[in-house]
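Sequence in, structure out.
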Amino acid sequence: MTTLNSDLVANFEANYTMSDASLLQGVTRIAQGTIELAAGDSTDNDIVMLAPIPTHARISSLKVGSDTLGGSCTFNVGLYTSAGVVKDEDCFASSVADAAAMTDVRFEAADINTAGQEVYTIAGDSSDPGGHYYVAATFNATGGTAGTMSFIIEYVIN
């Protein structure tokens, strides 16, 4: 039988190496809300900015749910700069079907090795630009019906 320690356990046991506080004993924050979409808000390439998240945060859970928005409506979940420039439209989820209950889509498209990575790294940046990125839903198939979209984003900062 073998025992394999993660870096967090190894650092904890070593007593002299500190793990990043956002990886061990960090502060969990939650951004959550509900958005009422008009009939024209769910057409192809429409963007719904859900919440600003600090670029150095680590997203652990990203739940999104919506009413039936019509047609064959689907949406991607990704990141945009605070200026509205796309960083990665579907880094978290791609072609999520509407009419779903609150579903955690954090790892629907993102590889499991992104667990614990900072938002800026997931966005493709090599260093932290500071500030915030917006988590957003971008429609990639038209719905065209009014409805509700809700989200709960859990993230950790130090």
